Amino acid sequence: MAVVSPFRDPAPARLAFAVWGAGLAAYVVAVTGRTSLGVAGLQAVDRFEISAATLSLFSVVQLAVYAAAQIPVGLLLDRIGSRRLIATGAMVLAAGQLMLAVVDTLPMALAARVLVGVGDATAFVSVLRLVPAWFPSRRVPVLTQMTGIVGSTGQIISAVPFMAVLLRFGWTPAFVSLAALGVFMGIVAAIVVRDRPRLPAPAPARESVQPVGTGAEVPPAAVPARREKVSLRAVMGEPGTWLGFFTHFVSLFPTNTFVLLWGVPFLTAGQGRSAQEASVFLTVSALAGVVMGPVAGELQARHPLRRSWLVLGAAAFAIGAWTMVLVPTTPRPTWQLVVLVLALTSTATASNVGFDFARTFVPPARLGTATGVVNVGGFVASLISIYLVGLVLDLVRPDGHYVLDDFRAAFAAQGVVWVIGLTGLLTARHATRRRMAEGGVVVPPVREVIARMRNHHREG
Ligand SMILES: NCCCC[C@H](N)C(=O)NCC(=O)O
What membrane topology does this protein have (predicted)? Predict the structure, then answer.
């Protein structure tokens, strides 16, 4: 069983924010690369002479590459650290964008997209690894949430300046600009990012974990200076890794299925909304994330033994919202669709709790690998869900002229992914609590907590 690491003085805050900020900027550029082809869809159809269905192959290839790269990237992260991985990843991503800028055949474009996917796969986990290394543990949950939120702004860079360059100057200059941005961020990361503060830190016990941040400020967890090969088996043998995996699994797919592929067709063809209205719903979702993220982060920090409630609560909210929207056979009023997108945002927010589980149950020497494993969960679930929705739509409406009833059947198929995810989550939570109890930490049952609160209230 892991033991709590020795405490150290925190790193200078300005330096910590500069390091995190440089990594974060590289992640924003990665998200820009990830979403750039989405906004250049029409131009891609022309340039590569492909159908819209083939275009969706790009998204699937990219998600699959991203998911497949997570464990190797995580192992590499524990071996070479965030600085080298962010810098190398940014260069690989830039190479992919440069290739995409000049090629004009489908196989070459797909190969370019594989490079973009690999480069993108390095950014998020590397930046997340910097957070517990540089910040006191009380702040880690909020900063982890902020990492996801700020990263999403890469989508705005794709939608606004990249789109403007694309429309004004064309395909090649637009993608060359993204490649240049990638090279620039790679250089910035190499110069500014440091894997750990240069402090006279005590050597961390190899099996120590970062404590949950309750009460007084707990300084950052030391990142081991001497890196050894990480055992994937040790990471997989930790129930906390699986708790993180299934948290990410059950929480990320609802929003990805909606935002990445099927939300706009559902809102337009299914609910009879205009394309502009559909983009307002997506904007509401993005803005809600900015509010929900820090609130969730604060709750995680204050109630670390109840983090799974956030995850289960968000899942219940999303299942309830989908039930409200899908059971009736007629288009839904605006407020119900707003509730739906808010519920989906709440699950995206809850997905980051998965990384917090990894941080507090897996020792720092293996945290990069564990973060990669957690990240696989959400993307595998997203692939399954996106595929299932498409499969049902194909079955019920092979001609592709979808109506509301087709979407009702298709989105209901997500139930399968929820059942798998929730079963895995509850099983992993049980195993994690058993492991905690072996180490002397017992999570009291809810009724006991309520009784204690009542007594406290009465006595007070
Ligand atoms: N807009 C919500 C972002 C949630 C971040 C998410 N949990 C995640 O895993 N992101 C990975 C990435 O590479 O973006």
Answer: Multi-pass membrane protein
Contact predicate 90/29, CB 8 Å = yes
pTM beyond 0.90, yes or no: no
**Residue of 65, 252, 256, 290 best suited for mutating to test ligand 1, as the one with most atoms within 8 Å of CB:** 252
Write out pLDDT tens, residues 306-359.
999 999 999 999 999 999 999 999 999 999 999 999 999 999 999 999 999 999
Query: Looking at the predicted structure, is the pLDDT value of residue 213 above 60?
Result: no
Q: For the chain, percent helix, then strand, then coil, each to nearest 5?
A: 80, 0, 20
Q: Which 3 state secondary structure label does DSSP give 442?
A: coil
Kindly give the distance from the C-alpha atom of residue 352 to the centroid of ligand 1, in angstroms, as a whole number. Answer: 7
Residue nearest atom 9 in ligand 1 by C-alpha distance = 375
Report the atom number in ligand 1 closest to the C-alpha of 293: 2
Q: How many A from CA of 399 to the centre of ligand 1?
A: 34
Q: Output the 3-class SS for 204-250.
A: CCCCEECCCCCCCCCCCCCCCCCCCCCCHHHHHCCHHHHHHHHHHHH
Residue identifier of the C-alpha nearest atom 12 of ligand 1: 124
Which tens digit of pLDDT belongs to each residue from 185-194?
A: 999 999 999 9
ipTM for the predicted complex comes to 0.94
